[in-house]
# Entry
Amino acid sequence: MELLSSENILLAGSVLLISGVLIGKLSYRSGLPMLLIFLFVGMFFGTDGLGIQFSDMHTAQFTGMIALCIILFSGGVGTRLSVIKPIVVPGLVLSTVGVLLTAIFTGLFIWWLSGMSWTNIHFPFMVSLLLAATMSSTDSASVFGILGQRKIGLRNHLRPMLELESGSNDPMAYMLTLMLIETIVMGKEMSGLTIATELLLQFVVGGAVGLMSGRLTLRLIALYERMGRKVVTKEDSSQAVSMISIMMLGSVFLTFSVTDMLSGNGYLAVYICGIVIGNAKLSNRRAITKFLDGMTWLAQIVVFLMLGLLVNPHEMLSVAAVSMLIGLFMILVGRPLSVFLSLTPFGKIDLKSKAYISWVGLRGAVPIIFATYPVVSDIEGAGQIFNIVFFVTILSLVIQGTTVISGAKKLGLVDEDESDEDDFGVELADELPTSLQTITLTADDLASGTTLRDMKLPAGSLVMMIKRDGDYIVPNGTRNLREGDVLLIISESK
# Structure
């Protein structure tokens, strides 16, 4: 029986997916991030577990690239400019200057460790910086996954800032990784001017292509909808949503490819393309978003399972001690120092917020994917680099990933009043002159009466539904309201 037959690959893949999803449900009880559980499932089925052999770094790198494009695009679509407007500058500073500082501080620490006789790593300075660069960005999949999974509200615009940073800082880490690999392989000297020029080129090209691609995709969507209105037999709305969503995915990979050919940063372009599309008027927005959410979860699950298969846990043991030191340095020194220095010019961000941002520096699939580049480029010590990055990622997800919510509560940064209107499952077409909002009733709201008739709603507003203890109630004027009821309100846009 051929071990690598198509049937066996499908069998192993299906068992991995099903096992990962079912075991991932345990994350709600254990408090572990769901993506970490997928990583453990991959390791359990891998070489040191049940024995599935997978060691193809090229395939892992390509699969990771596809997954990261989908994750970043979906994150961009979900980014509302109106929400990130107050924090866009500090968020972008964190995703650029913050990443660079994290790489420098951590790289210097790794280089110092390499000079110690008691360690088993001996990296030269540039390789130390390369190892740090692969881990310098926070992971969008981990941050989006944990914050989205728990659906908590954070004060001081912290949630959009963290999501903006994690969604936009991967391009910076990617550029640093590639530039350092090129420097090491080609033996070229890397001056500050060279770094600045290449970074500027990558950002300008990536930003421009992403902006144009987003606008072009919107035109293609409008063209598709016009073509549908001209046919005799009207297209089913669910089919239209599916086709438009597929066209968006095609746009994602076209954007990445074109940007890469123009020497720009494809990941940045994909993220900006998503922002442009997500902030435009879209028919069936909710259905399209659900499709993208499903694709994002599939991409995350596949890449974490694959990376779990890729690593050999027994090889990580040889670098466990030094990896622990590097990981703790990043969590306790490197990340906080880079965050506080980056946010120094922004006096409105208080100490507690900076401390929380420092703590939510989650590592995930992205650093591991970037760690495959030194292996593919045959950098000396690449095997150790990969194992160290993998160990640090697990450490970050275990320590930081399990304390994201509790840390916010201890710092008093959880906004209990912030509710998620998506809980009602109601969608309005973007072209309608109306908007939805939710309010949670307090004792003060009910002081003048306990019925809708007694409430003083703004003119042009109507309560569509009431949520109480998980149940949904159709309102009427005599319905008695209680403290804690959540009202879904439709209002005329002014």
Remarks:
- The first strand starts at residue 434 and ends at 440.
- The mean pLDDT is 82.
- Residues 192-230 form the longest helix (39 residues).
